[in-house]
Design goal:
Layout lengths: L1 H18 L8 E2 L3 E3 L11 E7 L6 E8 L20 E6 L5 E8 L9 E2 L5 E3 L2 E5 L9 E4 L12 E5 L4 E2 L25 E7 L1 H19 L4
Parallel strand pairs: 3-4
Antiparallel strand pairs: 1-3, 2-8, 3-13, 4-5, 5-11, 6-9, 6-13, 7-12, 8-9, 10-11
Helix pairs in contact: 1-2
């Protein structure tokens, strides 16, 4: 009997350790989401997560510009100016959560303008132009996934997406996704030209809830 109880406790503890990584990501509440008459509907909820270079836990990514002018037009409905580059930005999920919705948001200026401008936008988030990183609809910036081709940003996975006619007023790289804060320009901030926001896959939320519930149950049973 004692052995069976011990094995149950060990099994539950192992599950908790597996699920505990879901608590590392912290939500971000957006101030404004505006859908503009453009390619696709910008269906961004107000409660998301912000991902970035150097961010803690499951919100950490890596990002580089693999090609400064990739020969691809994400949105054929908008004119693609051949004199303005379409950079290919490559990002890697260095956390342990799967993100099933990911958006790119360019930085805005303090006066209500755009620090980062591009043509394949779907709307605005916190004053900055934004689009969903996927290959669905009229705006298809996502050009490759290193794992399953399912528009889900899995742990360790590498994505490549293209920003059409990218211009940053300060000449900053589109891979500078490293400053906390979505959309709004921060005075003196020279580390970021845009932001990534995302929603964790429903399974991750469920597993995290199960882990928390198991901890509570074990404590009530005084087994911890």
């Amino acid at each position: 009997m004692k052995k069976a109880k011990f094995m149950t406790i060990c099994s539950l503890t192992a599950l908790i350790l597996i699920f505990s990584s879901t608590t590392q990501a912290l939500p971000t509440t957006l101030d404004e989401v505006v859908d503009l008459p453009s390619q696709d509907v910008l269906d961004v909820p107000l409660n998301v997560h912000e991902l970035g270079i150097g961010f803690p836990g499951d919100e950490a990514i890596q990002a580089v510009v693999q090609n400064p002018d990739f020969p691809y037009t994400p949105c054929l409905q908008n004119p693609d100016d051949v004199a303005i580059p379409n950079p290919l930005v490559v990002i890697q999920n260095t956390g342990t959560l799967t993100w099933y919705e990911v958006w790119y948001v360019g930085d805005a200026t303090p006066t209500g303008g755009y620090e980062t401008v591009f043509q394949n936008f779907d709307g605005k988030v916190n004053g900055g132009l934004a689009f969903k990183i996927d290959n669905i609809g009229d705006n298809k910036p996502l050009v490759f996934e290193s794992m399953a081709q399912d528009n889900q940003f899995e742990p360790g996975e590498v994505w490549g997406f293209v920003i059409q006619d990218y211009i940053n007023a300060g000449g900053l790289s589109p891979a500078l996704i490293s400053s906390p804060g979505v959309g709004y320009y921060s005075v003196g901030d020279q580390l970021s030209s845009g932001s990534l926001i995302a929603i964790p896959a429903p399974g991750a939320i469920l597993l995290g809830s199960i882990g928390v519930g198991l901890v509570g149950w074990l404590r009530r049973k005084r087994t911890l």
